[in-house]
Amino acid sequence: MKKYRNARYSSRWDCFTWAIIGLVTVGCIIPYFSDDGIWPIIICLVALAFILLTFIGIYYRIDEDKLIVYTFFVPTAYPIAKIKEIKTTKSVLSAPAASLTHRLAITFTDRKILKSTTPLIISPVRQKEFIKQLLIINPEISH
């Protein structure tokens, strides 16, 4: 069990993540070539920094019996013992996931955990290893 203490998984980035970063970067370059002054460039660079920090700030940690999801570096803990099912999904629901294509939907046995019927959607790198670690802690998870 010690082997899996504090396992950390970054959120996976895909072509859509890079496309968003690319569009904002292009939007930052355009004001550079216009004669509108320095403020549009500063505003664009702040927007780019915010987007990068948002994507970098999404990661997941397995800490003993909890799945901790970090969104913009703010942690939210979910009990692994209450996870009912993990399955891949292509859902475009808003989620703490930087990827739009490599996502996992996690449903819980208790609706009070998420305060809704929608699943928790995440996109960890090394998904098979991530699921394997969750199954070691809670072998009753359906996948």
Instruction: Let me know the number of strands.
Output: 7
Written as H for each helix and E for each strand, in order along the chain, the element string is EHHEEEEEEH
Q: What structural class do you assign from the helix and strand content?
A: alpha+beta
For the sheet with most strands, the description reads:
4 strands, antiparallel
Order of strands across the biggest sheet?
A: 1-2-3-4
Low-confidence stretches: none
What is the 3D form? elongated
Radius of gyration from the CA trace?
A: 18 Å
Mean pLDDT figure: 85
Work out the strand percent.
25-35%
Query: Termini, distance in Å?
Result: 21 Å
Number of helices: 3
Topology:
Elements: E1 7-10, H1 15-33, H2 39-56, E2 59-63, E3 66-71, E4 74-79, E5 83-89, E6 103-108, E7 120-122, H3 127-137
Antiparallel strand pairs: 1-2, 2-3, 3-4, 5-6, 6-7
Helix pairs in contact: 1-2
Word description of this protein:
By secondary structure, the chain is of the alpha+beta class. Helices cover 34% and strands 26% of the residues. It contains three helices and seven strands; from the N terminus they run βααββββββα. The longest helix is centred in the first third of the chain and has 19 residues, at 15-33. The chain is elongated. The mean pLDDT is 85.
